[in-house]
């Protein structure tokens, strides 16, 4: 399993950055290779990705979510094995540090090659830069969910 970590500072308040990130169905706007994220309920999402010509579908479960601080998830089914956390840290009234840490288990030959060549790291770095551009250009979040999910809850 490979660990990928990327941090980006965005020029929006922490609540704005957090709220936008909770809109999982908008991830295709800034995440390369993500075709669709369908939110099933407060805890569960179904993902469709196409990376390097390989389409994957998988389900994720949010295991911990604390407004304006963090969202932690893991895959529960499908061809992809990963877990991760995104953290939001207030820098000042108008800036937020967003840190994404993911553990990814490459599953096919293409994914293993992408991991070995650093393609996964570059993709996530690009996704975080696109999130920065997306939220700053928008000037605010397009919605958000502020509920609390606790581990084992």
TrEMBL record:
Domain Coenzyme Q-binding protein COQ10 START: 10-131
InterPro entries in UniProt: COQ10_START, ORF3, START-like_dom_sf
Pfam families tied to this protein: Polyketide_cyc
Transmembrane segment boundaries: none
CDD domains linked: SRPBCC_8 (cd07817)
Top-level taxon in the UniProt lineage: Bacteria
Listed name of the protein: SRPBCC family protein
The species this protein was found in: Streptomyces thermospinosisporus
């Amino acid at each position: 399993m490979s660990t990928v970590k990327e941090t980006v500072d965005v020029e929006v308040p922490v609540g704005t950055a957090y709220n936008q990130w909770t809109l999982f169905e908008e991830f295709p706007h800034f995440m390369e290779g993500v075709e669709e994220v369908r939110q099933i309920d407060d805890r569960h999402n179904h993902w469709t990705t196409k990376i390097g010509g390989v389409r994957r579908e998988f389900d994720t479960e949010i295991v911990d979510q604390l407004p304006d601080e963090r969202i932690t998830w893991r895959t529960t089914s499908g061809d992809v094995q990963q877990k991760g956390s995104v953290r939001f840290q207030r820098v000042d009234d108008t800036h937020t540090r967003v840190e994404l840490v993911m553990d990814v288990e490459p599953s096919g030959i293409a994914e293993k090659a992408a991991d070995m060549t650093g393609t996964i790291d570059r993709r996530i770095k690009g996704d975080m830069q696109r999130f920065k551009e997306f939220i700053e250009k928008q000037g605010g979040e397009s919605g958000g969910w502020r509920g609390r999910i606790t581990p084992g809850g």
